[in-house]
Amino acid sequence: MSSRHTTTIAGSLLTASFTAVMILSFTAVADDQGPGSGKGGKAVDPAPAGVRLTTALPGKISVDNSSHKTSITATVKNEGTKESGDIRLLVVGFDGLQVKGVQGCSAMAGKDLPKGSNSGFVCDVGNLAAGKSKSYAVDATFDLSKTGKICLPVQDRGGKKTFWQQGPVPFGATNPSPNAPTTPLLLDTTNKPVSPGGDELPRTGPGSDLLPLGAAGAALVSMGAAGLWWSRRRPRRQPS
Description:
elongated; 0% helix; 5-stranded antiparallel beta sheet; 17 strands
């Protein structure tokens, strides 16, 4: 994997470790999400020969204006001609988008979350055959008074290499309707939050452009809709 001493990819680097602490189940699947999209995704470390890993997020999700709940389908795909080997998918929420659970996946410990993120899960995908994909139901909430982003890195099992990363890419609405039952959000759209107690719809602060990550002084840089974020350190695992 490229290191800070050799190559900087899209100006972002994360050195972190992840601990799986809790298995959460989730049964709801998002409705009418449309075809998946790889917007905001980019290859990072070279994948094994014949392996091409990508991810996809729905082009549209819907947020309940009362409960703030939403559901998202996160998909990892092997578009290559050979098996992927053991891989894992990370699902991480930022700003107003908080990941509450991912079907069959393990929650990251709070101390292992990068600064700027509020939640994260690790999904052990295993060996993905050529041409196959695997989807995960993501249970989330979205605070419509804020912007919100999600990030999907695909790594080797040990987290030492990141073959692909989608995001942090935003979901959002340019014209929210706070009085409607639900608010539709589009992928790769910055949310224009509803100001409390008024009809004005201001855009909130510039803080999403640069998020410091961890004590090592690494940073995640969001360039447009996409940033690059990957782990150099093998994750700590609790004894079973």
